[in-house]
User: Which sequence fits this backbone?
């Protein structure tokens, strides 16, 4: 029996950083939401990959409507990254109801991912929660593209992976979500959504290099160098950053 693919699922391992070190594989995984996983999918994550920790970056409403499947032996933590953001366009409901230009709305969301208190607190706690040796973790939001995409970019940036590889991982989401996005749009069409609505939602379901660039531009404008953002924005200590690199980079 072939394992059904988990939407937007992949490891963050295997990248080589600026110093020739490889990011360890099999320890940090990203995905879309873990709603209604099949038994063999849960077995694959929990037993084959040995994932011990689930980090859910979604809102209360998202978690209520689409609760995660939690397998035996895994713990489950919630980090509502955009809880107090003034512009949260990252959930499906918001994508459907939001008025205006999708591209501009998403750029505003990425500014919130850099500056909102819930994002800074959530990403700090996320990085601190990863300071455990040899305990695989999976993290996700709804689509695994924005809140998750920034979380993945943060990890790879801390590990000194190149901007090119960070962006490639980020943009891979568009290929990984092709089938899931088509299913979402087909379901909405059956419910009577107009072609213009479907076009806007289809755009919102994709990532764009402009979005991640805006995130890092805002960090640069507000904090200066990335290391300063880690210290002043995320309140991570030099010791925590050193420990993180020690845990996730091959010697």
Assistant:
């Amino acid at each position: 029996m072939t394992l059904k693919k988990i939407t937007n699922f992949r490891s963050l391992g295997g990248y080589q950083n600026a110093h020739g070190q490889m990011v360890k594989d099999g320890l940090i995984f990203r995905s879309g939401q873990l709603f209604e996983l099949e038994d063999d999918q849960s077995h694959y994550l929990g037993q084959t990959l040995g994932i011990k920790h689930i980090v859910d970056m979604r809102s209360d409403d998202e978690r209520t409507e689409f609760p995660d499947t939690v397998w035996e032996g895994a713990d489950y933590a919630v980090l509502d990254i955009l809880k107090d953001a003034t512009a949260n366009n990252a959930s499906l409901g918001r994508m459907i109801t939001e008025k205006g230009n999708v591209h501009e709305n998403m750029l505003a969301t990425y500014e919130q991912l850099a500056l909102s208190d819930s994002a800074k607190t959530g990403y700090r706690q996320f990085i601190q929660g990863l300071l455990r040796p040899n305990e695989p973790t999976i993290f996700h939001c709804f689509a695994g593209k924005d809140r998750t995409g920034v979380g993945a970019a943060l990890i790879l940036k801390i590990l000194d992976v190149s901007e090119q590889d960070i962006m490639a991982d980020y943009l891979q989401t568009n290929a990984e979500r092709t089938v899931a996005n088509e299913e979402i749009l087909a379901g909405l069409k059956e419910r009577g959504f107009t072609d213009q609505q479907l076009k806007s939602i289809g755009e919102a379901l994709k990532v764009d290099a402009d979005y991640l660039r805006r995130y890092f531009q805002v960090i640069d404008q507000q904090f200066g160098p990335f290391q300063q953002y880690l210290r002043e924005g995320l309140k991570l200590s030099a010791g925590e950053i050193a420990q993180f690199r020690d845990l996730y980079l091959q010697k």
In short: The first helix runs from residue 39 to 48. The chain has one domain: 10-242.
